UniProtKB/TrEMBL annotation:
Transmembrane segments: 12-34, 54-72, 84-113, 125-146, 158-183, 195-217, 243-261, 281-301, 327-346, 358-381, 393-416, 422-444, 456-477, 489-515
Record-linked PANTHER family: LIPID II FLIPPASE MURJ
Taxonomic source organism: Leucobacter albus
Record's protein name: Murein biosynthesis integral membrane protein MurJ
Cellular compartment(s): Cell membrane
InterPro entries to which the protein is assigned, alphabetical: Lipid_II_flippase_MurJ/MviN, MurJ
Keyword annotations of the record: Cell membrane, Cell shape, Membrane, Peptidoglycan synthesis, Transmembrane, Transmembrane helix
Classification via Pfam families: MurJ
Length: 530
């Protein structure tokens, strides 16, 4: 049993890693093709953000909160869940087609709401992209239902590997666009035509379609079929429960907040980092969190859930603190490293950007990086609440952060130039995320009693002290690299980033051992054993 779980975990981890690498390559090619700070890039981002946002609100939240638990239960039925899945897939398909049709009709109004300050020509380009991208809603929904059903059948590989196919198709579309229409850091909005819009927007949608439709083959191999069934009694919409309600409420709040912040970021289009650039920066920011924090907490979550459901709160507290310390120890270093390597990462992502463009992108990454460890700690605390079957409390600290973010950003843009809106947004996000993490810890303490908050804060201070010498060394090496190569390309950027990473890593581990941090000693022993 253990070996089977390990194999399944390895398959899922490898699929996720390959998908992330291909996603990074796709972003680099897209930036090369249409620039990162151009009005055309922001038009594409707004046209493509609609299906993602609507899917999260209307499909992703509903499927994950309401239908997925029912899908998992249905596979234990005598027919293996076939009848139930026919009902669900029919219902979801009807809903997705209806939402897609409404989104296509409402696209001009939605784009206008997101970008009232834009010139009409740029807004029309965003609307044109949205018509090609909005059909992604249908395929996102199918991908979720088909994939979750396969997971329930313990067929894990296809669901995690399918996004890699989406990225391959999208990469092919971007390469075709570059070969036919060329690449530019600042393609004029007036330079687009029906063919170029169709190729870039259509290939993005084709990738999502491939991601969903490729699951039909393993679906059939798992013994599942499909015949439309419009008798929707028993689908389970009335069995949502409190957890599903609050989970869906959190998704709704984040989606509505995303609309507001998107509108604010669109004000910077053509002047500085706007929606497209902020999306690519967020991708870079999320890499260490996804690879390190999510992996660690996923490993801890089963144990936390078992302890929480059994009511073993003392052991739950110890396990939660251990998880929080490990995540914080690694993410403090990741934040320090991302801060110092930001100029080199920016150059790797945007090989053709000017020195001034790279500098402003690096500045946003650095501001974001200050909140990286707090974001991962908040994520850990949120999973702690979920392990206790409490989705209501996380809704409160998510909502509080969103309100502060919207208010803070709305005020900040009144006092900064448009070119600095991206930096201001990142700064407000960092401050509110630090507050969110502290608020979440306080709420958890209220729920389960003191779990060693002072001890956890003390460990965080030691991690920060250990990171300071590493930061100083990274700063010195960064300045040295600027002397050696004031203008550096992608190859030198990679070399400089690797050198700084190695030196900072050695210093950080040495300082942790010097400060006698138990988690560091255990980590070093495990590495040496392997």
């Amino acid at each position: 049993m253990a070996s089977a779980l390990q194999r399944a975990s390895a398959i899922m981890a490898s699929g996720t890693m390959v998908s992330r690498v291909l996603g990074l390559a796709k972003s680099m090619l897209l930036i090369y093709a249409i620039g990162q700070l151009s009005r055309s890039a922001d038009a594409f981002a707004n046209g493509n953000v609609l299906p993602n946002t609507l899917y999260m609100l209307l499909a992703g939240g509903m499927l994950n909160a309401v239908l997925v638990p029912q899908i998992v239960k249905s596979v234990n039925n005598p027919d293996g869940g076939r009848a139930y899945l026919n009902k669900v897939l029919t219902l979801v398909s009807v809903a997705l087609f209806a939402v897609t049709a409404l989104a296509l009709v409402a696209a001009p109004a939605l784009i206008w709401l997101l970008s009232p300050e834009w010139p009409e020509e740029q807004r029309n380009l965003a609307i044109a992209f949205s018509y090609w991208c909005i059909p992604q809603i249908i395929f996102y929904g199918w991908y979720t239902v088909l994939g979750e059903a396969l997971n329930a059948k313990k067929v894990f590989g296809p669901f995690t590997w399918a996004p890699a196919i989406a990225n391959v198709v999208a990469i092919a579309g971007i390469l075709a666009y570059i070969l036919i229409f060329g690449a530019s850091n600042n393609p004029p909005v007036s330079g687009w035509n029906g063919w170029s819009i169709a190729l870039l927007g259509g290939s993005a949608t084709l990738g999502i379609a491939a991601q969903a439709l490729i699951l039909i083959w393993p679906w059939r191999r798992a013994g599942l079929g499909f015949s439309p069934d419009f008798q929707w009694r028993g689908v389970g919409l009335k069995q949502t429960g409190k957890t599903a309600f609050w989970g869906l409420a959190a998704v709704t709040a984040m989606t509505l907040g995303g609309f507001v912040t998107t509108r604010i970021m669109n004000m910077a289009s053509g002047e500085g980092p706007a929606l497209f650039a902020m999306q690519q920066i967020w991708l870079v920011f999320m890499l260490p969190h996804s690879v390190i924090a999510v992996s660690l907490i996923t490993a801890y979550f089963t144990n936390l859930a078992e302890l929480g459901q059994a009511g073993n709160i003392p052991e739950f507290k110890r396990s939660f603190v251990a998880a929080s310390k490990q995540v914080s120890m690694l993410m403090v270093f990741a934040a320090a490293l991302l801060f110092m390597a930001a100029p080199f990462v920016s150059r790797v992502m945007w090989a053709s950007g000017t020195a001034e463009d790279i500098a402003i992108i690096a500045q946003v990454i650095r501001v974001y990086s200050v909140g990286l460890a707090a974001y991962s700690l908040m994520f850990t605390t949120q999973r702690g609440f979920f392990a206790l079957s409490d989705a209501k409390t996380p809704f409160y600290f998510i909502l509080a952060q969103l309100i502060l973010l919207i208010v803070g950003t709305s005020v900040a843009v009144l006092y900064v130039e448009k070119a600095q809106i991206g930096v201001a947004y990142a700064g407000v996000w960092t401050l509110t995320t630090v507050g969110q993490a502290l608020f979440a810890l306080w709420l958890l303490k209220r729920k389960i009693g003191d779990f060693g908050v002072k001890e956890l804060c003390g460990s965080f201070v030691r991690f920060t002290l250990a990171a300071l010498p590493a930061l100083i060394a990274g700063y010195a090496l960064s300045n040295l690299s600027a002397i050696i190569a004031p203008e550096f390309g992608v190859v030198l950027a990679i070399i400089f980033a690797l050198a700084i990473s190695a030196v900072m890593g050695i210093i950080y581990v040495a300082m942790l051992l010097l400060l006698r941090v138990p988690e560091a000693s255990g980590l070093v022993r495990r590495v040496l054993r392997r």
